[in-house]
Amino acid sequence: MNQLNESSLDGFNIDNSKFKFNILLLSLVGPGVLAAMGDNDAGGIISYCVTGAKFGVSLFIPLSICLSILTYTVQEMSMRLGTVSQKGFIALIGEYYGNFWMKYHLYTLLFQNILMLTTEFMGMTAGLIVIGVPPWMGTVISLGFILSIITFSGYLKKERIALLMGILNMVFVLIAFMVKPDIPSMVNAFVNWNYHGYSHNLLWYIAAIVGNSVAPWMIFFQGSAYIDKGVVAEHIHLGRIDIRIGCIVQVIIAVCIIISGTALFGQIVNIENAGPALVIKALANHMGKAAGILFAVGIFNAGLLASITITLSSSWCAAEAFKWPHSLNDKISEAPKFYTVYIGSVIVAACVVLIPNLPLNYMALATQVIGGLLIIPILIFLVMFTNKEEIMGKYKNSLFVNIRACIVTVLLIGAALFFICYSLIS
After folding, report:
1. pLDDT for 4 beyond 70
2. Taking the model in full, what pTM does it have?
């Protein structure tokens, strides 16, 4: 494991402490940004866009911004737990709470990740369909891109490639400007938290947005990524900056996608059952071909980036549970089971997306809702671990962090129970 610390900079003879800090920060930026950017995956983009098309400029924009606090809280605890304990989340569950809970979290994560990977393939394939690629070929091309990342050697090289992919997500900012949103309506949404029209499944959309802000894979990915990168407890303050950067970028892009979707407000009947390709084509028809191509590029890139991070969370989780070699610094021959989980997961998801007549947009929304439900027990364990002095020492949760974490947990549990009761009554 390559340990990143200030002593590693001594060879550069740098005396300026501020410059030294900036260099170290740049070297540590990665897992937090990737986890946050992975939240804006293809499924999330579809959900955000459909939400904007369904409700226009409404409460979902300020809601998305408020949820960034929730995202930061969860990511910060996950980062701190991983860097201090130097153990993966699933390994800690097995060590402290036994095989039952370890296997429960392992198998539910693998199931949720397959669903999420399916939505990533939906988005990537839809992006390629717009430029004339047949669906089956689009799926094969997407599969090839996802698998190609493991051919690069070393953790840092893989991470930097993924970060470069993340830059392309900025196309959604450009599309939002092309929509020319009504500023008074935006201000009104922040003041009154209103929404246009009526929908009996409003809570379904709210649950999907909440579920997209804190996906289960994120907790398993982030701690393991920081460990694999060689980050240690003394760099927690830099890890927090990494996470803040990621959360800020994530929420800006999420809001821009919702704004992009408002261009289709009221124009597509039964949009939940329309495929992503239809949504992209509708954007192109309404805003011009350039907007459609930009959206297609953005959703393909987002699906590709998220596929890599989501699949890595599955691989790290399975390898830690069964004590297999599991570093991205290992070659395929050195960690065959770790990479087998990676390869197998994306192949299964690629096969699922080829099933004809799937309600693709509805599946994307449903996946976010399921993620919001599955995150609850994971979050409870995360709070318990970050309060254990035997694990965290002086880095355990402060009173303020505990209050914030408990509020987040209670809100998620309340939202989940409310949504379940609402679904049963409806």
Report:
1. no
2. 0.83
